[in-house]
Predict the 3D structure of the following.
Amino acid sequence: MALISIQDISLAFGGPKLFEDLSLQLEMGERVALLGRNGTGKTTLMKIATGQIGPDTGKVIFQKGIRATHLPQEIPADIKGTVFDIVLSGLGQRAKLISDYHHISQRLATEHTKELMRELDRLQTEIDHTNGWEINNQVELVISQMKLDPEIDFAALSGGQKRRALLARALVLKPEVLLLDEPTNHLDIDAIKWLEGFLKNYAGAIFFVTHDRQFMVNLATRITELDRGRLFSWACDYPTFLQRKQMELEIETATRADFDKKLAAEEVWIRQGVKARRCRNEGRVKALQRLRAEKQAQRQAVGQVKFRVQETDPSGHLVIKASRLGQSYGDLCLIRDFSTQIMRGDKIGVIGPNGSGKTTLLKILLSKMQPSKGSIRFGTNLEIAYYDQMREQLDEEKTVIENICGASDSITINGKPRHIIGYLQDFLFSPDRARTPVKVLSGGERNRLFLAWLFTKPSNLLVMDEPTNDLDIETLELLEEMLLDYSGTLLLVSHDRAFLNNVVTSTMVLEGAGEVNEYPGGYDDWLDQRPKPAQSAAAVREKPREPRREEVQPAMPNFVRKLSNKEERELASLPAKIESLEAEQDRILDIVAEVNFYKKDPAEILKIKAKLECIEDELLAVFERWEHLESLR
């Protein structure tokens, strides 16, 4: 029996039906990706699957006793408390005892009073009777896996950290069904890769929406697509889906062309006048009426965004020259002794974990921020258009139109005036939606609006900080094409691995401890070239400049590499190493599960938790090494 069965549902919000006779079943062990253009109802379908919204017709059946949790696309504004409280709240009513015990334990580190000790003993006794320690262990473990500080206030977290906290809240219940709406939004590449590995080993069913194509390639076992109110299911991975979908589109286009040709011929016949009326076949007339009704009922596919960047006169050959840049905040060093030259036509990706300083580096390169040391020199004739990650240039209270052109009803694009409604329709805003305040727009609509605003600015240097969040895959691919055709210079911050691979010709990578290194190629090229752990930072800095992509000579044909004798011995030893690490992990988890564990000295508690985290990281590294060596056999 399916864990969740959605049967023949329909739903409308005062206009055309969003869903029509839609059905879906989720089975144990499936990882189902949900695709669809922005506005087709993916988030609404997620809410129906969790019971937050009821359909107009049809029904949703949950297998008895199953637990389902939902990670929403947007971070709720009303969430308050520490990370521990937020994650614990995923367990519902059972959470209060553990929450009280946890906070009193923290207070005892600084307020050792008899009243607190008596309250701690009372809570401990109650937890013993309700088997609550298992709950506490679940919360501690999932927070540790997400690499979060349990005592930090949720409001103080970055966007990526908030997503990790909400993901931890969804996972702590150990549900049979996980419903994830854009789980990779605001996560850095390391966090996305960890999430992929975690979800691959998840025993339950996973139903997820994502714009991250590499995430979908690595995770999905079935593809479902929302298109014009109907849901289509493809029992295959994402690359196979793309091939089958293209064939379906070609068949649909040919079928519609035949239909339109037949309808046009019948319309000519019915209008042939007196001669036609004398010999009119009533059956043929009724058939024409059916064709007209069918044509009226057809739902057209959602249009495509039309990106047209405004270019200006070329910049000078040198765009930006940075010399011995440094940037620190107290003891935290983000950039150390970094020099670079950006030349006209370069398309450069900026890669690094959240908090590593990617946005800071962009602002320094654009002279929007002064570095702690070093200098910046601009080339000649620069016209800069800057896509801000936070979209701060948008006024929430103004309408879409007012954000683009104020009180005017026209805008000049590439020297030609255009009516603002026509321009916004290129970005899929209907006339009614164009008059809507920005504060009610969805994430995808806000991103399209910001791109519409950005592309009104003539530029020969385009700087984009996380432009891919909330865009559907078709729009992402169109943005890729536009950036590839852009004749100016591009600086791009992104955690989307496929987007980086497809667009950039070189990368700047913030690799920690202030190190910023440059590599030719995209994300995968960086993985191949990045220094191994044994290499020193000095060796990296002294590495000779790699040639630009256009200078690289064609490579020799690849050959199949086999394992060396040393690698064969290493591969044979890994299962025993994994078994030993897992045994040590179980031993430490048993210690953490002890009733009196949290009565230990706080320093000892931290030491044990740090040891557990190190073992988890080592296990992950050993598993990755095992998979790599197995792939070479």
About this structure: Confidence is low (pLDDT under 50) at residues 535-561.
